[in-house]
Write a structure and sequence with these properties.
CATH topology of one domain: Immunoglobulin-like
Shape: elongated
Helix content: 10-25%
Protein name: Glycogen debranching enzyme GlgX
Family: Belongs to the glycosyl hydrolase 13 family.
Keywords: Glycosidase, Hydrolase
Distance between the termini: 82 Å
Largest sheet: 8 strands, parallel, barrel
Strand order of the largest sheet: 13-14-17-20-21-22-23-24
Number of strands: 32
Structural class: alpha/beta
CATH architecture of one domain: Sandwich
Organism: Streptomyces alboniger
GO molecular function: amylo-alpha-1,6-glucosidase activity
Radius of gyration: 29 Å
Length: about 750
């Protein structure tokens, strides 16, 4: 029984001649034809139901054209809409239906053709049916997209500005959206070749990887060495000046923030802002058109491929941050851009017992229904496309727990994970899970199956807390430094299942982490309510930038401490672009809508002395990691002695130079010594020889006062050589300084001291 307010809305809708917010009769659904300049239709041949999308090919009798195929379960009819350069629309009914796939071959349609779909069916939001042929819809399989989503009221399937917002989503809007939405573009499929063959890819093993998270636009937007017309584009990232920085730094992979075609949210556009990060996908096959320097009528595809090729030639893999958990269509009050109008009930999870509403495990209004076979096919087809045709080397899955949900709970035997595990293409690429979502039971760190690595936020929390003096003891830090065996030593998983990071795009930059204790997101226009309040940061004595020389020196040392800790830890280290040279966001920990200098990498920092040294240290530590296999182990430490002299592959020491006891792990402490033995590295090299390396002792001291640390004597070492002292800028010891085993060294307050073992 509807409420009195809903009944009033029904009467008002009828009075204004709109589709009323009630269950309509089937004969009424989609009966009104959208207005607009319509060109006479073209002949459509039957075509084929596979592959899905728009594929240019030679058809019957050698006639060239394009085959169109769209899965639209439950739809009553589908019109293919072709657009000329003046906006004229040709509507071509697709009359062939095979297993819920509408298809047809249109002779003469060639690459560069702009197109979309109108899908007819019932308007019955109460049962989840939201078909509205007035709305032009983007093909989910479009390989390129021309134009941008401006999101005026016309692109909503319902009357967006209906006075009674609680029923607005039930009032159908019959205005034509075609003038206001981007169009798909037919793209030429090049003949298969060996362009992306395995022997042409870097194929960096997981254990040897160093990941660099960057934004395609923000990385080069201010780069003085990149030509102005290429800055902020795929071509800009492929430019030698941009590649040179990555090569000098020594990273092995770039993890690109979302490059699938995305839309800006309405609430941002109304405030004069834009979605900068891109976690609002709407086209899973199309490179985001705004990042292309060469054009948006299909040229973006070739430009993206050339970028990947240039990175590969520099020895750098390409990992995409992908958002398959939700789309830009938001909830019931969101716009109608693609899937919502094709088959709302098929593509999205709806709430049990209330199909008007969406099940939202993502915090973004909707969640894709991955248990639906055609939705799962959409995702896996997209993943394979980016690997086989675009050349990428792996994926980081945003809110991956949402993809692993079966009908409600997160299930590590879910269809999505099962399909990935058996797919001959996808099981061979790098797979990174963000192992949580916002739903009940969504936090799944350590739970993903073998083949998967995970963003380890427990590493982030422990390292931040240690260096700000907030850890009650060093138990958790010990696990994080040595590969998080408590999380990943099961089912054949390895230490590189842990992607270790201190910062990511979401949160403070590394410099802001030691400069701010409170978020400063006022520029987002949300009253500083957005962004996390759990930053685990320390401003070193002043909030924000300061002229105090002592505070500035302490902050630079803390940056060196955090960077050194990350690169000495077992697992896969991940950096954020600009952290290696002190990039700041002015205290913003949620710069998702700041497409400006707040988010763009400031390349002037590279020339400033204090930050130039940070880059040099970061590069030196990465090179040290590449050179020493003991720092990038492929198996967990055993902690047991493997030889008669009692040396273990991993040992922990107190400031007294004695091995830590059970009681020491539970006692308050700000200093930890970690001994890594190069004699006991499991595995063999490519020729079958035992892997042998130097041994190291790392001393991490987070207290503000100096500490006297006794260096372990024989059999651990005869002497030690200083490799890194993060206090060097003010008072530390230069590399090469030698200390006698059994003697004591003074470790400056808040310092990492890395020593190479000599004559062990």
């Amino acid at each position: 029984m509807s409420s009195a307010s809903e009944q009033g809305a029904v009467r008002e809708a009828r009075a204004k001649g709109r589709a009323a917010p009630e269950r309509p009769a089937p004969a009424v659904n989609g009966s009104r034809r959208p207005a607009g300049r319509v060109v006479p239709t073209r002949p459509v041949w039957p075509g084929a139901p596979t592959p899905l999308g728009a594929r240019f090919r030679v058809g019957p009798d050698g006639v060239a054209g394009t085959n169109f195929a769209l899965w639209a379960g439950g739809a009553e009819s589908v019109e293919l809409c072709l657009f000329d350069d003046r906006g004229g629309e040709t509507r071509c009914p697709l009359t062939e239906l095979t297993h819920e796939i509408w298809h047809g071959f249109v002779p003469g349609v060639r690459p560069g053709q702009r197109y979309g779909y109108r899908v007819h069916g019932r308007w019955d939001p109460w049962t989840g049916a939201r078909w509205n042929p007035a709305k032009l819809l983007l093909d989910p399989y479009a390989r390129a997209v021309d134009g941008d989503f401006a999101l005026p009221a016309e692109v909503y399937g319902h009357v967006r500005d209906w006075p009674q917002q609680h029923v607005a989503d039930t009032v159908r809007d019959d205005r034509d959206s075609a003038p206001y939405v981007p169009k798909g573009v037919v793209v030429h499929d090049h003949a298969p070749d060996d362009e992306w063959a395995d022997d042409r890819r870097p194929k960096t093993p997981w254990a040897d990887s160093v990941i660099y998270e960057l934004h395609v636009r923000g990385f080069t937007k201010l780069h003085p060495g990149v030509p102005p017309e290429l800055r902020g584009t795929y071509a800009g990232l492929a430019h030698p000046a941009a590649l040179d920085h990555l090569v000098r730094l020594g990273v092995t992979a770039v993890e690109l923030l979302p490059v699938h075609q995305f839309a800006h949210e309405d609430h941002l556009l109304r405030r004069g802002l834009r979605n900068y990060w891109g976690y609002n996908s709407i086209g899973y096959f199309a490179p985001h058109a705004a990042y292309a320097a060469s054009g948006t009528a299909g040229q973006q595809v070739g430009e993206f491929k050339r970028m990947v090729r240039a990175l590969h030639e520099a020895g750098i893999e390409v990992i995409l941050d992908v958002v398959y958990n939700h789309t830009a269509e938001a909830g019931e009050l969101g716009p109608m851009l693609s899937l919502k109008g094709i088959d709302n009930r098929g593509y999205y999870r709806l709430q049990p017992g209330d199909a008007r509403r969406y099940a939202d495990y993502t915090g973004c209004g909707n969640t894709l229904q991955v248990v639906q076979p055609h939705v799962l096919r959409l995702i896996t087809d997209s993943l394979r496309y980016w690997v086989t045709e675009m050349g990428v080397d792996g994926f980081r899955f945003d809110l991956a727990a949402a993809l692993a949900r079966s009908f409600h709970d997160v299930d590590m035997l879910s269809p999505f994970l099962a399909v990935i595990a058996q797919d001959p293409v996808l099981r061979r690429v790098k797979l990174i899970a963000e192992p949580w979502d916002v739903g009940s039971g969504g936090y799944q760190v350590g739970a993903f199956p073998p083949l998967w690595t995970e963003w380890n936020d427990r590493y982030r929390g422990a390292v931040r807390d240690f260096w700000r003096g907030a850890l009650p003891d060093v138990r958790d830090l010990g696990y994080r430094l040595s590969g998080s065996s408590d999380l990943y030593a099961w089912g054949g998983r390895r230490p590189y299942a842990s992607v270790n990071f201190v910062t990511a795009h979401d949160g403070f930059t590394l410099r802001d982490l030691v400069s701010y204790e409170r978020k400063h997101n006022e520029a987002n226009g949300e009253g500083n309510r957005d962004g996390s309040d759990d930053n685990r940061s320390w401003n070193c004595g002043a909030e924000g930038e300061t002229d105090d020389a002592d505070i500035s020196a302490l902050r630079r040392r803390q940056l060196r401490n955090l960077t050194t800790t990350l690169l000495l830890s077992t697992g896969v280290p991940m950096f954020v672009a600009g952290d290696e040279m002190g990039r700041t966001q002015g205290g913003s920990n949620n710069a998702y809508c700041q497409d400006n200098e707040v988010s763009w990498v400031d390349w002037g920092l590279r020339e400033e002395p204090g930050w130039r040294e940070l880059f040099a240290l970061t590069s030196r530590l990465i090179e040290l990691r590449h050179r020493h296999p003991v720092l990038r182990r492929r198996a967990f430490f055993s902690g047991r002695a493997h030889s008669a002299d009692g040396l273990r592959d991993l040992a922990w020491f107190t400031t007294r130079g004695t091995e830590m006891t059970e009681a020491d792990w539970y006692a308050p402490a700000a200093t930890l010594g970690m001994y890594l033995s190069g004699r006991d590295i499991p595995g063999r090299d490519a020729r079958g020889a035992q892997v042998v390396d130097d041994s190291f002792l790392a001393v991490l001291h987070a207290a503000d006062r100096p500490a006297r640390f006794v260096l372990p004597g024989p059999p651990w070492a005869s002497s030690y050589e200083v490799v890194v002292d993060t206090a060097l800028e003010e008072q530390g010891e230069p590399p090469g300084t030698v200390h006698r085993a059994g003697g004591a060294v003074t470790v400056a307050g808040r310092t990492v001291l890395l020593l190479r073992v000599r004559d062990a």
